[in-house]
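Loading example: each entry is read as two labelled lines plus one structure line.
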Amino acid sequence: MVNAITYISPQLFQTLQWRLWLFQLLIWALLLPAYSSWSLAVFALLLLAKLWQLYRGTSPWSLTKNNLLAGAMLVALLISSRQLGVMHLMFHFLLLAAVLRLLGLSDRRPSDISQLLWVHYFLLACAFILHQDLWLAVLIFCTFLLNLHCHHLCFCREQPQLQWRRMSQVAAMMTVATVLLFVLFPRLPPLWQLPGAKLNQTGLSDNLAPGAISSLLQSNELAFRVRFDGATPPAELLYFRAKIYDVFDGQSWRAQKPQLKVSPALADTPHFRYTVIAEPHQQFSLFALGLPHQHSNNVAVNREALVVADQPLSQRISYQLSSSLVPVPARGDVTRNLQLPAGNVKARLLAQQLNQGAPAAKTLAARIGLYFQQQQFRYSLSPGEIYGEQIDNFLFEKKLGFCSHYASSTVFLFRAAGVPARLVGGYLGGEWQDDGAYLQVLQKDAHAWVEYYQDDKWLPFDPTALIEPDLLRDLSDSTASTEFSGLGGDWMLQRLEIWLMQPLRNMDYYWSMWVLSFDSNQQQSLFGQFNNWRQQLRLELHHAQWLLILPVIGLAFWWWRRPRLQPVEQLFQPLLRLKAKLPAQSYQQYLQQWAEKHPLLMPEISACLDEYLRWQFNGEPDGLIQARQIMKGLKPKLKQLKS
Amino acid sequence: MSDMIGITAKLQDQFRQRVWRWLDARQPASAVVRLQQRFMFVFPTRFGFGLCALVLLLYILGTNYQNNLILLLAYLLLVLVISTIVLAFLNLHHCELSARPLADVFAGQNAGILLTLQRQSGLPLALDAGWQHPGQLVPVSDATVVLELPAPQRGYFAMPRVKLQSVYPFGLVRCWCYVRMDCRYWVFPAPLAAPFAGPQPDPNQQNAEEWSGQRQYQPGDPWRQLDWKRFSRQQQLLVHQFSATTLPGTDLWLSADPRLSTLEAQLSDLAERALRAEQAQQPFGLRCKPTDIAIGSGPAHLRLVLQALALW
């Protein structure tokens, strides 16, 4: 029985296998962040095995071989499941199923192919979980098109010829339908929690050792982007708070334990509204300016006015905030912010010195700043290791360092003087892109500063800014050549890289704004805008509508009811205009009459008659085309006749 | 229990009859059938349902991760499934199916019917269709197939319904129609030489014998030529008469040989003799009711005679 579903020609099957292998290679590359080292090697070996099989033309793997290998891999994966995490485990299972199925694919059981294609589509969705930036999304989409092509091939008998016109028509309609569905289909909030990806954390970590942050300060990776609705704060106030470090053990600072979430109270102070698009950094902490009043649903604000996510951030997220640049109110017990480890005697003495007269905390801050400026402290991104007592060596010997050194010493001095203080980690400034459309904050804008306690509030204080005011300046076109760039020759290369990559990054930003962060809020606002537009249109039209609509209806009716000619009449229209045909006459007689009357036109008319008869009575559509051409040629002669 | 099975079988049969009648009204049989929407049906295949399930899964996944790209992929696949409904329909729409019998066959052979599928107007889309019928299908070329039907009985048969189906383009939606063609084929009775005709008579031989009637028994007639059947039924003794085969150039009339017990055997014998006569270029006629077929020769005449035999 010849059945369309089960038959596929051998050459086509071979081509299909090659293309499916290419797809699997691309997917293997795209799922790179999900592997542990050994699974990467195993999948590479399996893909090579398939390549060998295709190249040599050997028979597909038997079911038992497949099952044995699958069993072994499953056991290995389950053993290392804790290390991998649930989500990556699922990716492994899916990819394993796909690769083994391809290895055992034979044209005797072509229904296997449909299952393979199903798993491929699912793997594409998995790739989308891991990558969302524009260019990788485009690559994943191209891989999708490859799978679609294989899908199409699967149900053809031989290699089909590509019909570009028809394919582009269908593709255009499908694109329009997809975009419409995307914009109009209702969005639901997450139905239940799914496991996130278990990847290495990036950005500011929970432990801040002075040296650790230096690698971050040289990285050009994107941390987040900010778009302001309305007013933008001046450059020197762009401090984005991310983490708070309480506890110092002499070497490094440890971040606060997660604090309770609060619903912030609205305030009357002037505030800034902005949207943050944060890159995935596998941590809970997010970024905010000052004191947030309002926040979007996907984030929360905790007691210390830090913004946190409810799950470690494993994919790009966009959230809106409205905050005012006022000091954060103090909550809870502040005496724990006086904790100091033993040691650093000289620093403690200095603190006592500066605290002479028990001044207000603000004055103490000013004095500390003055001390830094007068003692010729300098800024450098590569100051070298500090051995022994960190604070003492920095304050009295080295006098060279970057933000974390300055901030950590300042907190020490505050605490030693009896003023509760804490270290705040976050980001400072950033570069305005695309004519000020959005602020791009890279990892090298990471910064550490101090908050000290006064009048039930935490007042911010940045010692590094006093030393290196360039940090606060708008750096979009800066050619800062201080030791700030401890990078040397790499600096030129970095600037070049930024200049090349920036247009691509801008496109990525707009991609994030329009596509990735299109959620139910945006959908509602889009509907609202559409309704407004419709109301406006209705108002405008109300007066003019009768003037417009009636003639249009009349025209449409006239067009619909216009007398339409039969194809025959259309064909002989030039002749009929000159001499009408009697109803009793047939067209044959009519044409013969014409030929008799005007013997000059005899050859054309008889040819036309022949073609007409062929078309009408033989059913050949060719006849009509030929007759039309002959009539076309006849027209000028008829014109001569008329004149 | 068997009653239940009987009843359900009967109900199924009745239902099927109803469906065929409904289909007959929508698509009357004709020689060339143009596939139209009236009798074409579409329904998703198992793979199509599987892909719909995948769309649902991806929607849930995208919603849970709040990932717009997965939602986009889900919408794209949904749009794909829906477009294939139209594409699968358009693939077969306005195709023309024509059938003609390949050749006249004898009972016991397989009747072959040539089925051709083509498209007259519009862009030639890739056609991919499968045929389903209890008979045997043999592909001849791209869009031509020979349907082999077993023909155990003689007669003039109409071609049964053929199911034409296609899952092109993505295997997600199946489009099918049951096509009834106005195509009839002849099955002539299988030529079987009568057992007592002896060795194959050579038409050039002088002493070949043809049955030419019966006469009363006269003592001295050979026993073998007695019609015993008649004697056992009617107690009449009659003797078969044989005359020598007529020489070429003279007329030959064929009529049913009563020595043979069944009608089928008689017809088979007649067919055999007609074929032999035609082979020997001997003009012959056939005595049958209601009217005899006049003497003639040639393939058309032979065909006429065989047709008369088939419809006896």
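Chain B touches chain A through 50 residues (CB under 8 Å).
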